[in-house]
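Folds abound. Consider this:
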Amino acid sequence: MTRCVMGVDPGATGGVAFYYPDAPGRVAVHDMPFAGGVSGGGVGDLIRQYGPTDAIVELVSAMPGQGVSSTFKFGLAAGAIHGALGALGIPYHLVTPGKWKRRMGLTSDKDASRAMACRLFPQVASSFARKKDDGRAEAALLAYYRVHQMDERNAA
């Protein structure tokens, strides 16, 4: 069975990526499925289509200055993603933005994330070309982090 790692940058402007470490550079990226809010069914459809063996999801929380309604919607989005993964039996890890970005040599600069994704995945660099493609880029980088940072650390 070929390993496929799913990376998820939650939220309405987030993204979903499927990375195949046995075929370096092979990654499929998508905008977060959205239907009046993040669509758990849409995420489930992507999971069934690509068949990931495991996943990594950015651990999100309320941000200072974020309104109550926005915070609630963000929480619903994260719950839809966790629910789809759980319902389909996909084991997943949670990681804070600070932890994975620090290990990858990134900051909160979204353009730097897009640039790194273009370097790591030149075959799909056009998928990260627009400013609004940062969710796709970070989803792909999360999957890469899962394989090349977490696995290497656990093997040591």
Notes: The chain has a mean pLDDT of 89.
